[in-house]
Amino acid sequence: MDVVRALFAAVNRGAVDEIAALYHAEAIVEHVFTDDDRVYEGSAAIRSRWKREIDNYRGLLSGDHRIAIARIAGIETGWGWVRADWSTAVRDLASGVEQRRAGYSHFWIEGGLIRRHRSVVVGDHVPDVLAPPPDAGVAVRDNSRGYPSRPITGIGAVIRQNDGRVVLVKRRFEPLARQWSLPGGALEVGETLESGVAREVLEETGLVVDVGPVVEVFDRILVDETGRVRYHYVLIDYLCRPRGGDLRPGGDVADVALAMPAELAEYRVTDKVRDVVRKASLLQI
Predict the structure, then answer these.
(1) In which region does residue 283 sit, left (phi positive, over 0), alpha (psi from -120 to 50) or beta (all else)?
(2) Which single residue of 29, 30, 82, 282 could bond 118 by disulfide (Cβ 3.0 to 4.6 Å)?
(3) pTM as predicted
(4) Which residues, listed in sequence order, are joined to residue 120 by a DSSP beta bridge?
(5) Which residue, among 241, 239, 143, 246, has the nearest Cα to 188 in the 3D structure?
(6) Domain 2-123, CATH
(7) What is the CATH number of domain 152-280?
(8) How far is it, in rounded angstroms, from Cα 167 to Cα 181?
(9) Is the separation of the CB atoms in 61 and 127 below 8 Å?
(10) What are the start-end ranges of the H helices in the chain?
(11) CA neighbours within 13 Å on the CB side: how many for 261?
(12) What's CA 124's distance to the chain center, in Å?
């Protein structure tokens, strides 16, 4: 699945050599390119076709991105098969015609390279950040967070601006009601960690972000007066960089702010938030 993530990241950067390096020498690509249902065989032909795609079309998503990913998952039949659900928006540089599509791709991965890549278009819904596709009859979203039967996976974001400031949010509800913290929330069924971070950031801050490396993994357990576990989160914080949107509070957030790391004490954030921001300052995205 990491190979598929790397492919889509390289496509959004327009990095043709990086794209080509992810395909096996005898790879087959089917129905992948804009206005092109042909089949391409061999890494040389695939590289040439990707170069034409990159040269002829400009991405219309924030930061000139071409594609947004909702989910990347292994297929239970095994044999290295992976499914990715996506949405794209591009403009033909010659004609000015825009193409907006949503669909999914199947990949056969062997030896860390793509042997087969086939796409199917199913619609034209193209937001910058996608919710996980519905799995009818498989899972029902559970909004109850208090007194869980098992730990909940939470994702958070250190959103670093070019000037070094980070985004803080003031929570409306428990845990941490009326306190300043980092944006984030709970991962949903069928959602990748990176997609979940991007979704939560957009919902809470109005920002579209590139999700970078993991900063910290830790747990947060809160008990009530009887000692019973009221909240139990396993939290994964990522370093993120904004590439679009407008900063504003949303979802369960009452307010948003930008603060330099040295100013965090003024917002009375937890020691853990300060530690995570400090660790994020040592990383690059």
Answers:
(1) beta
(2) 30
(3) 0.77
(4) 104
(5) 143
(6) 3.10.450.50
(7) 3.90.79.10
(8) 9
(9) no
(10) 2-13, 16-21, 43-56, 193-205, 271-280
(11) 17
(12) 19
How remote is the C-alpha of 85 from its chain's centroid?
Answer: 12
pLDDT at residue 136 is higher than 90:
no
- Does the fold of domain 152-280 match that of domain 2-123? no
Whether the Cβ atoms of residue 122 and residue 83 lie closer than 8 Å to each other = no
Query: If you count them, how many residues does the chain have?
Result: 285
Query: What average pLDDT does this structure show over 44-65?
Result: 96
In percent, how much of the chain has pLDDT > 90?
A: 69
State the pLDDT at residue 141: 43
β pairing state of 67-74 and 180-181: unpaired
Residue boundaries of the structural domains of the chain: 2-123, 152-280
Between 80-84, 234-238, 247-251, the lowest mean confidence (pLDDT) is in 80-84
Tens digits of residue pLDDT in 143-191: 457 888 899 999 999 999 999 999 999 998 877 788 999 999 999 988 8
- Other C-beta atoms closer than 10 Å to the C-beta of 36 total 12
- 262: which 2 tokens? 């040295």
Distances 246 to 76, 88, 162 between C-alpha atoms, Å: 40, 21, 15
